[in-house]
Predict the 3D structure of the following.
Amino acid sequence: MIASAVALCLLVAAIWAVMRQRDGLIAAWDALRSGAWPLAALALILPLANWLLTSVLFWALMRPRADQPGVPLPEMTLLIGSAWLANYLPIRPGLFGRIAYHKAINQIDVRRSVGGIIAAVALGALCVALALLIAAAAHAAALSGPLLFAALASPLAIFLPACFITPARAVAIAASARYLDVLVWMARYAVVFTLVGRPLRAGESAAMAAVSQAANLVPFVGNGLGVREWAIRLVSPALPQWYAGSEPVSANLALTADVVNRAAELCAAIPVGLACAVLLVKLARPVNPASHT
């Protein structure tokens, strides 16, 4: 409860700081007025891609075993969607609620659920490190355009074919989903920073994605609320020149960009979370045979 209160205070402080330094918001508004609506649409749509990819990730990690059932993908998608919104409440109820749901409804023990979460975190660290290394190599080789995109997507050339190899199928699907999730986070930061008037290089986008993933792991603070915004503000101007380029990112501009990112995320999470929660209750509710007589 205390951690959540601190997180909320951090978010309020971030919004207050942005309102005092309004240049980024003015730049975002000017971009929209000049016809940058496709970027605004992407800022709203890309969090939905994170939700769907995370659902695939946990579905793959919770596939059926000899001794325990799995979770169907549609059900997992509803679980992740409702947990996404619920985790904005104190003490991550979405996380603990999902574990309890697996135990009560899917007959999956707590140890296996926790093991799936640990595996997802480990895959996330691996995929973020991979994206950072590729972005650094691309910067050193001065890659841009299609070549840069091909370089960033190159790990999928290994992960995706492995999805069809039976022994490693579940891990390969999970790794593919997690790496795509990291690429989507990079795209989200590229979009919001462009909206506030400072387009990012690939290395900078990868660094922002890495910071956001680390912030999401802070205990008892759901979705990195407040922590992520200030972490982005601190890290952005501190990126080394050899990695990010010659022009540093302004700390205040970085804070503004992630507040815009958070606003877009909430616009996606609220309807998705509410709809998923309603559908999940209907799915989990036992059917009364008497109602059909």
